[in-house]
Amino acid sequence: SFGYDDYHRVICGNYVTSTHMIVPVEDCLICDETANEIINSIKRLVIKYKISIFDERALKGCLRHVLIRCSSNNEYMVVLVTGSLTIHNADLLIKDILKFNPSVTTIIQNINNKHTSMVLGDRNNILYGKGYITDTLCGLNFQISSSSFYQINKRQTEVLYNEAVKAAKLTGQETLIDAYCGTGTIGMIMAKNAKRVIGVELNKEAIKDANKNMRNNKIDN
Fold first, then answer.
1. What values do phi and psi take at 51, rounded to 5?
2. What distances in angstroms separate CA 192 from CA 122, 173, 177, 181, one per listed residue?
3. What is the DSSP letter of 60?
4. For 181-192, what is each residue's pLDDT tens digit?
5. Helix runs in the chain, H state only
6. In angstroms, rounded to a whole number, what is the distance separating the alpha carbons of residues 214 and 129?
7. Kindly report the CA angle at 144 between 43 and 203, in degrees rounded to 5?
8. Cys bridge to 170: 154, 165, 166, 193, which one at CB 3.0-4.6 A?
9. Among positive and negative, which fits the CA dihedral 8, 12, 16, 18?
10. pLDDT tens digits along 6-32
């Protein structure tokens, strides 16, 4: 999350629990190292190009949050969550993000100008790249867009999903319901051991990703 400190200097970091007070963070020890570098470079560029920070009370300003997603294929997605429809010096900002962070493969603007604790809004504009990254999980490939839920810790996700497959003791005759399925990861990983899988999800963007992932992995049940 981005904000200003008491001296009107740009800061970015994490919220104090149950508040919108930002604790500045430059090196998160449980975060991907490259993601840390990308965030810090964006902070410097925001200052350089005088990009305003969104004021949640007045509902004015531009940058609100920055979301970084990374994949096992070394692809990095940058999501700039803004309260405004336009970004001041957007072309220069994008050019320098790519210059200083060659691992970035796509940049997306997400617009959220509401008084809400939700990070992402409903509108997305692709500023650079294809608008998604691809990750390999348990032998399957998954396309991930900015608005779709995806587990953030790949190593532990694979451990967890494999344990779930063992615990289910599927015979190949079952119909499974993958509730809150997101991009369809756990349902598709289970699909080869079941008769069929039904994914249930409210997020339309996640379902679009899930359908693409199903086709790309040649899963027809």
1. -85, 125
2. 34, 11, 14, 16
3. B
4. 988 999 999 999
5. 33-48, 90-100, 154-168, 185-191, 204-216
6. 23
7. 100
8. 193
9. positive
10. 999 999 999 999 888 999 998 988 888
Identity of residue 14? N
- Cα distance between residue 5 and residue 110, in whole Å: 24
- pTM given for the model: 0.89
pLDDT digits over 46-91, tens only?
999 999 999 988 989 999 999 999 998 899 999 999 999 999 999 9
137-162 burial code (b ≥16 CB/10 A, e <16) = bbebebbbbbbbbbbeebeebbeebe
pLDDT band, residue 219 (cuts 50/70/90): very high
